[in-house]
Write a structure and sequence with these properties.
Layout (H helix, E strand, L loop, with lengths): L1 E5 L2 E9 L2 E6 L1 H5 L17 E2 L1 H8 L5 H11 L6 H8 L7 E4 L2 H4 L4 E4 L2 H12 L4 E2 L5 E2 L9 E6 L2 E6 L6 E4 L11 H14 L7 E5 L3 E6 L3 E4 L2 E4 L2 E3 H5 L15 H11 L3 H17 L11 E4 L5 E3 L33 H11 L3 H25 L7 H18 L4
Antiparallel strand pairs: 1-2, 1-5, 2-3, 3-4, 6-10, 7-8, 9-10, 9-11, 11-13, 12-13, 14-15, 16-17, 17-18
Helix pairs in contact: 7-12, 9-10, 10-12, 12-13
Length: 413
């Protein structure tokens, strides 16, 4: 049996019988003022919860793809056994909950250990070779949920620290996509797209480039709150977890949520659905504009606030995938059933608006306004980041934004 902790409070217990996961909340957690649902599909007061809804939530806390494959190979764990993976890696799982075998394992003295540049460079080299990271005493160090390697750190006054003993991180250190020869300048690509999103009025995470001497991106964690020196973890859910789907179903074409389905989930679960629907619409349009074909259901999330209220989280993982031939050119979510960005016509926009319950005139106005602002602010953002717009890479991203803006401009306003 595994124990599921939130801060220092035992929230529930997880176990497996005949390869089926079961979860139950602790009675004290249910009575607590801080008690909240792990997800809308796992409500408090439901007794023993079992099956796919339990599996989808807990599988969403783990890495995926090559990152998970490397971890499983290193630990000699079977693929598809989420319970064994949580048993091995759950203490550092993504989000606000920690999963441990023994309560004594959790109640250790939290601390932050200086993470020196030479150590970071050594870890980056391991990641380039697709090797898991090792922490203190040879213990395996997890690299957050998702398909890309990321290192959770505390970053303060220009110094990096590694959290230990259950201490929360404040930032994510994100190296270049691998192999780097196939995805050149990915760190600058993502940092620029996030900066452009913020300049266009979107709520996107803050990001900075740090030279070690190779560039890495450092993003602030939106699921952390710092008050009076105390770092508090916030609970979050991506839209695969909310939909009750596994991480490998994150793309619409693989059975993942479509944008109209995401809008329906916002209607059902958001504290202020109307505001979050507008924000989600801007997210979709902006990803289209910058050529991010990887804007799937795991790259959009909701944060759990006081009283268990859900609200759309700040946007993250935005980069121009269109400049990399190795990426699938299709969009992760269709617009009116069309996945090819250059094939999206007015009829697809009309179908999209009808299916998503969005006023077509509102959709057109916001899309055109975002397109105009992205084009007008592109050079300003590049200049602020000291990126030369005449260089080949920046020019290619610029061409994508300008071309997509023209495609949006061809539709009636």
């Amino acid at each position: 049996m595994l124990l599921v902790f939130h801060d220092t409070t035992l929230a529930g217990r997880l176990w497996q019988e005949n390869r089926v996961l079961h979860f139950s909340y602790e009675s004290e957690w249910q009575k607590s003022a801080n008690g909240l649902d792990l997800s809308p599909r796992l409500p408090l007061g439901s007794g023993v919860l079992s099956g796919d809804d339990v599996l989808s939530f807990f599988a969403g806390l783990l890495p995926e793809g090559p990152v998970l494959s490397a971890l499983l190979k290193f630990k000699r764990l079977p693929e598809g056994d989420v319970y064994s993976q949580l048993e091995a890696f759950g203490e550092e799982a993504a989000g606000a909950f920690a999963i441990v075998r023994d309560e004594r394992q959790f109640h250790r003295a939290p601390e932050y250990i200086p993470y020196e540049p030479d150590q970071i460079r050594a870890d980056l080299e391991r990641l380039r070779e697709n090797q898991p990271l090792l922490g203190l005493h040879g213990e395996l160090r997890l690299s957050l949920a998702g398909a890309q390697n990321k290192i959770p750190v505390k970053w303060e006054d220009g110094q990096f620290f590694l959290p230990a003993g259950g201490a929360p991180s404040t930032h994510i250190l994100k190296p270049a996509l691998q192999p780097e020869r196939m995805f050149p300048h990915s760190v600058w690509n993502e940092a620029f797209c996030l900066a452009l999103a913020r300049k266009c009025g979107l709520d996107a995470v803050g990001a900075e480039i740090v030279q070690l001497p190779e560039p890495v991106m450092v993003t602030s964690r939106y699921d952390r709150v710092i008050s009076d020196g105390r770092i508090t973890r916030l609970h979050q859910l991506d839209f695969c977890q909310i939909a009750g789907l596994l991480p490998d179903q994150k793309y619409e074409q693989h059975g993942g949520p479509s944008f109209p389905q995401i809008m329906k989930m916002l209607d059902d679960h958001a504290m202020v659905p109307a505001a979050d629907r507008i924000r989600a619409l801007d997210w979709l349009v902006f990803n289209y504009l910058v050529g991010n074909g990887n804007a799937h259901a795991r790259n959009l999330a909701m944060l759990c606030g006081p009283g268990g209220n859900l609200a759309l989280a700040p946007f993250y993982d935005i980069l121009c995938t269109a400049v990399y031939p190795e990426f699938d050119p299709r969009m992760a979510m269709s617009i009116g059933g069309e996945f090819r960005p250059d094939w999206v016509m007015q009829r697809h926009r009309e179908r999209f608006a009808a299916d998503a319950g969005v006023n077509l005139a509102l959709f057109s106005r916001r899309a055109h306004a975002l397109a105009e602002r992205a084009v007008s602010e592109f050079d300003n953002v590049a200049g602020a980041m000291e990126l030369d717009v005449s260089t080949e890479f920046v020019a290619r991203v610029r061409n994508v934004v300008h071309q997509r803006a023209k495609w949006l401009g061809s539709a009636p306003k």
